[in-house]
Write a structure and sequence with these properties.
The chain is mainly alpha-helical. The protein has a single domain, classed as 434 Repressor (Amino-terminal Domain). The chain has 7 helices and no strands. The N and C termini lie far apart (47 Å). GO terms for molecular function: DNA binding; DNA-binding transcription factor activity. InterPro entries: Cro/C1-type_HTH, Lambda_DNA-bd_dom_sf, TransReg_Diox_bact_type. Keywords: DNA-binding.
C-alpha cells in the first residue's frame, strides 16, 4: 500500500465508512477506491479535491503526510467532535451553525 492510499484508507476508517459508502461520497467507484487504497493506482486531482472538501483534510497531509500531527484529520479532539457533528446536520442547520460561528467571531 502506498502512503497516499494508506492515508485515504485512514480517512475512510476514521469516518466509519465501508469502501462503497466512501467511494460514493467522493464520486468514484468502489473498485477504483480499492485500487487506490492498495497502492495499485493513484487518485485523480478531482478525487483528492473531493476528499479534501468532504472530509476537511489538509491537502498537504493527504499528499505528502505533512501538515498535522499523527492522524492528520483533526487538530484536536474538539475539532473532531465539531466536524463530525457538522457532517451529520441538514444543510439548513449547517448554514445556521456557520452564522452562529460568524457571530461569535465578531463578538
Amino acid at each position: 500500500m502506498n502512503e497516499i492510499g494508506y492515508r485515504i484508507k485512514y480517512i475512510r476508517k476514521q469516518s466509519n465508512l465501508n469502501q462503497s459508502e466512501f467511494a460514493k461520497k467522493i464520486g468514484i467507484s468502489q473498485g477504483n477506491l480499492s485500487e487506490i487504497e492498495m497502492g495499485n493506482s493513484n487518485p485523480s486531482a478531482e478525487t483528492l479535491i473531493s476528499i479534501k472538501r468532504n472530509y476537511m483534510v489538509n491537502l498537504n497531509w493527504l499528499l505528502m503526510g505533512d501538515g498535522f500531527e499523527e492522524g492528520g484529520l483533526y487538530a484536536d479532539t474538539n475539532e473532531k467532535v465539531l466536524l463530525e457533528g457538522y457532517r451529520d446536520l441538514k444543510e439548513s442547520d449547517k448554514f445556521e451553525l456557520i452564522e452562529i460561528m460568524r457571530l461569535k467571531k465578531r463578538l
